[in-house]
């Protein structure tokens, strides 16, 4: 089973704003979230506060 993640234009703009602002903590959380969704799309999320 294969899944893909599609971003809205608004989401893409928000991510670009975060990149420009240098908010590395938020970008790391987004990256963890996206990786979790790619690996386990049907089982839910683990704690992302780590």
What does this structure look like?
With 50 residues, the chain is mostly helical. The chain is built from two helices and no strands. It has helices spanning 9-21, 24-39. The protein is flat, with a radius of gyration of 12 Å. The model has no long low-confidence stretch (mean pLDDT 84).
Notable characteristics:
50 residues, mainly alpha
Coarse shape: flat
- Taking all Cα atoms into account, the compactness measure Rg is 12 Å
Percent of residues in helices: 55-70%
- State the low-pLDDT regions, or none: none
For the sheet with most strands, the description reads: none
Averaged pLDDT: 84
From the helix content, strand content and strand pairing, which structural class follows?
A: mainly alpha
The amount of beta strand, in percent, is under 5%
């Amino acid at each position: 089973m294969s899944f893909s993640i599609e971003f809205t234009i608004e989401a893409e703009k928000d991510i670009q704003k975060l990149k420009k602002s240098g908010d590395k903590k938020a970008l790391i959380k987004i990256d963890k979230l996206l990786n979790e969704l790619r690996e386990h799309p049907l089982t839910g999320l683990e704690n992302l506060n780590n």
